[in-house]
Amino acid sequence: MLNAIKPGRRKVLSLVGVAFLLAGCGAANTAGPAAPSAGTLPSGVTVTASGAQELSLGEPKSGGSLTVGMIAPVESLDPTSSVSSARSAMNAIFDVLFVYDEKGNVIPELAKSIETSDKGATWTMKLPTGVKFTDGTDFNAEAVVAHLKNLAAEGSMSRSAGDVRQIEKMVAVDDATVKFTLKAPNMVFPKIFVWGQPGGPSMIPSPAAVEKLGKDFGASPVGVGPFKVKSFKAGGDIVLERNPDYRIKGQPYLDELKFVTATDTQTRLAAAVAGDIDLASTQSGVDLAQATEGGLTSLYQPDGTFYDVLFNLTKAPFDDVRFRQAVIQAIDNNGLNQAAFEGKQTPMTGIFPSSNPFYAETAWPAFDPEAAKKLVAEYVADGGKAEFAMTTTSPPEFQKQAQVMQQMLQDVGITVTLNVSDQPTMVTEALSGNYQSQLRFAEVREEIDQQLRQFFHSTSTGNNGKAGDPEVDALLDELRTPKGQERKAEIYAEMQNRFAEWLPIAPLVAHKNGWYVGKDVGGFPGARVGLPDPDWRLLWANQN
């Protein structure tokens, strides 16, 4: 039987719908307020089929410039190595091969199709002809193959290196065709070409520019996207200009799109209220409420991310499951939500929230400081030290959580040293394993099995815990098979039960995702399915 992903075909590789929408957890939790209902939406705001709020103040207009406030600095725009803070700008520069539709199906974007006729052992990808990179060279099958080889190369720091290394052989059959032979059949192989993390296979750079610029490519990237780089220096502003030769006539609407760094939450919001930036994303219900009070338009987006404590599972004290459980049971997620977010977020009760269609009741350790004290005593009696360092970033929502948790953990006999760093450094340290714990956030959206594999499989370069679990590995491997896809509900239930025993991270509080926009934004298309960002092609400026 032929399995294919082609334009107009929506029944292939159905994922989870809006799977990891963290809108509500167990009854014991205090969930934050929901987004405004359809009857109370601001003027010009509607809701997409995927649950994203979009804004349209009339017919789209071409021209103009808008400025986006970024939550973290960007050091590089190279899709083989960049960190998550670069993803927004890179989506505007490169385009992606495939996307998700509103039902969570994989559908073509830049590519034309991908199909298998042998249950996932080999796949054939078809590409468009006549598309050019912004340096004038051809986008073709050789470009795709060259990028994937770079990602899979020895020493690659890409979180998707493991995804690409499942390929035994890849051949550019002709300019418009790539054939992949996998080391083992994988029925969800196309998912690696959807969005993905920066450093993923979905964004194809110009091979000629990569060869010419070498390690400097990240400062002057060349893609086929709707925008091209006008100016950029590491850690500074990113200024993009319209690609006049973009493959879709009439897009993008904007002549210029700027990304400026504003890491402090309140500074970023104040800049938007003052009109110094035009739009910014947030993960805070408090920010969205304050933005509305300040005269901005708050646009709520589907929730698919949550704060968590990442454990280095290879180093003491987190190589001992007793200590991991003690930390989890010492942290009151409800209290954390109240202290850091005025109760406007949703506390987590595990790695799968109860709103997930595959959610299963498990024995995930609940808040129990007395139980935590006993576990700490056992660990110390066996020679362990009840202390660790936790690294986080400077924004106040991170600092507040870190300080509250520090006190909670001290109450059960655990000493926590807090270190403050920037996001690029934290990502580098996580990839290298040079840390004990980090307060950060996990992103688990529509591509559940793909993201869980990146985060938790023992062979994944994106497994920042640096250790795997044989049972979880086996379940993730089974999901790649036809039988695994048939019984994925059972597999997810088994996986959740195993997560509750393994305890690889400490989930904390769900984000309340959204964007706030100023008066100069005439059209905002809502976040794309599986991403926190909009389709930059369809963003337009109100030039009245």
UniProtKB/TrEMBL annotation:
PROSITE patterns: PROKAR_LIPOPROTEIN (PS51257). Keywords: Signal. Residues 106-438 form the Solute-binding protein family domain. Residues 1-30 form the signal peptide. Gene3D superfamilies: Dipeptide-binding Protein, Domain 1, Dipeptide-binding Protein, Domain 3, Periplasmic binding protein-like II. The keyword Coiled coil does not apply. It holds the Pfam family SBP_bac_5. InterPro entries: Peptide/Ni-bd (IPR030678), SBP_5 (IPR039424), SBP_5_dom (IPR000914). PANTHER family: D,D-DIPEPTIDE-BINDING PERIPLASMIC PROTEIN DDPA-RELATED (PTHR30290:SF38), PERIPLASMIC BINDING COMPONENT OF ABC TRANSPORTER (PTHR30290). This is Glutathione ABC transporter substrate-binding protein GsiB.
